[in-house]
Structure formats: structure tokens, C-alpha cells
Amino acid sequence: MVQVIQIDDPADERLADFRDLSTADRRPDRPGGRGLVLAEGVVVVERLLASPYPVRALLGVQRRIEALADQLESVDVPAYVTSAEIMAEVVGFHLNRGVLASADRAPMPAPADLAARSRCLAVLEGVGDHENLGSIFRNAAALGVDGVLLGPGCSDPLYRRSVRVSMGHVLRVPFSTVEPWPDGLKTLRDNGFRIAALTPRADSRSLRTAVAGVGKVALLLGSEGPGLTEEAITAADLPVRIPMAPGVDSLNVATAAAVAFYEVTQALDPDH
After folding, report:
1. Do 186 and 160 contact (CB within 8 A), yes or no?
2. Where does 111-268 sit in CATH, by number?
3. What's a BP term from Gene Ontology annotated to this protein (predicted)?
4. 124: nearest Cα among 98, 100, 147
5. Tens digit of pLDDT for each residue in 2-22?
């Protein structure tokens, strides 16, 4: 059962997982740092507790820890309870959601294993914005995408902002990396995937017609602004697009992902 521990000293060394989150070079979830996962808010912490990521500790105000009582019954970790003022001093800013949890990372699946058990995958290139990345993971969870593969230039899905924007769904959607790029996409083709590159260029086909009758689809999505590189488009089986009204050529990448995920998952499973 969770160990509830009252904290009245912001310098308490037991709070190291949560300290100075506004200081870039000391953040525990930064790439190359301690590699922790941080969940913020009751809903996201609940999803962390239900995920394969090993929880280390919680920090929150009394009422937020109490709101998690049912989920914490079977968790043997410390839950540090303190005031909002002390919590803000530890974290480095006022945390409106009132609770944080830290966890160690879980092993990523091998790309081939993820491909073997999936029908629909998102493959990302150059999605470096944490909020876009978090939104894409949330969309993937909502629309039945089986997993996400990360190419070069993508930010870390387990960075705190991505976890928060995804509403914790990054913790339930499996992801891995594609290496080398783009030659590693061959793993998808070997597992029966048709690889569709989302691009507004003139020779692309309508996504809906392109994926009709296809058994497994990997959807390539590029960065906000420049989109996919020519190298990635060439490595795909075909370029596809979302038809637009006149005068508009593209959508925000997370919005485009949501539309594309819906079209692909409906094509694969119309009763979904």
C-alpha cells in the first residue's frame, strides 16, 4: 500500500525527482538526464499508475493524493503530501493540477515486434514540437492506431509536456524508433504494411481511396511547416493527401494526423 508521508521542508532530499522542473539543464525528464517520466494531474497520474512504467513516487497536495486513493491501494511507493506553496518551491512554479508522479522508463518494443502485432502504425519524421507530439499520441489512442514509430528529428514522447498534452495516452500507446532512416522502413514492408506518406504535393492520391482494401497501413507524417523530406516520401509506397478546400494546402500536423488516423482505421475496420 502507498506510504503517505507529510513534507514540510522544500529542501527534503526525498523530493529530488520533482525538483527544479523549470530549469532546463536539471530536469529529470530531459533527454540525456536521469530519464524519468513525470505525470502531472490526477487523470494523467491515474494513467501512469495503470501503465507498464514503474512508478517511483508521488508529490501532491492532500486533496489530490486523496483523489487517487483507490488507484494507490496496490502501489508500494511513497506519496509525499505538502502544501501548494512548498510544492511550488520544489517544482519551480505553481502547479495548478496539484499532483505529480515520477516513474522509470519501460523498455521500448523492437520495431519488428511492434509491426508484427499491428495493423495501423503512425511513423513520424521531424516532429520536434512536444505539444504536437503529445497531441498525435492522444489522437492515436483515441482512433485505434496500434503504435508510433519515431524517425529522425522527433522530440522525446516522455518529456513532461508531451505526456501532459497527450493526457497520459503516450503511456499506453507503444512506440519505438526507426533506424537507419529511411531504410529501416523496410521492416514495415516485410511485415505486410503499405507505407503511405502524407503530403500536399500535386501527385498525391486521396488518402481515403489509397487505403481502401489495404490490409495494413503505416502512415508517414512530417514536421509542422516543411512536412516530410523528399527522402521519406521516396521511401514510401505512395504519397497521399487529405483533400482541402480551395486556398488551403495543409493542416497542423496533429490535426492532420487525427483526420488521417480516422480514415485509415475506418478503412481497416469499418465497424470500429
Report:
1. no
2. 3.40.1280.10
3. methylation
4. 147
5. 899 999 999 999 999 999 887
